[in-house]
Design goal:
- Helices cover about 30% and strands about 15% of the residues.
- The longest helix is centred in the first third of the chain and has 13 residues.
- The protein has one domain: Rossmann fold (3-Layer(aba) Sandwich).
- The chain has a five-stranded parallel beta sheet with strand order 3-2-1-4-5, sandwiched between helices.
- It is of the alpha/beta class.
Amino acid sequence: MQKEIAEWREEGRRADQPSLPLVLLGVDGVITDLSARRSEQDPDVELPDPPIPEYMSGLVGHIADVAEVWWCSTDDQDSLDDLCNFLGLRTLPAVALGSEEMSDASVRRLLWSADAGGRATYFIDDFAGVVPARLPDGTVVIDTAADMVLRPERVPSELRAG
């Protein structure tokens, strides 16, 4: 793993990178409100599509204005493009996860490369208390598992609107 990290850091130092922070953003339990997925009539029944809070379009839209945002998801690109359209966003790139494991090499590569380029890095997902391993020390990890959705007050001030 140390060899890969060294390669990613070297790649980041050589790359012509934007000065914007890098934000990796999950979907389920971040954009979609998993707490609202339960039926009010029967809490043991899950509704098929969790709702997206009304504030999410503005919140994610602002983050996308001030940072380079990548979806971090197991969802396919068409689904993520549909989500962008729903939120009123331009299409965002995605780092595809091969599994639910949030420490995939593709995720770490993006973070280490950006960190080596002097950029701030953020990883926002529903980690359920299990912080991904081997991330750059400066990466701000925001675990949305307790709220089951990204709340505006959990967004770091440097990514928040005015």
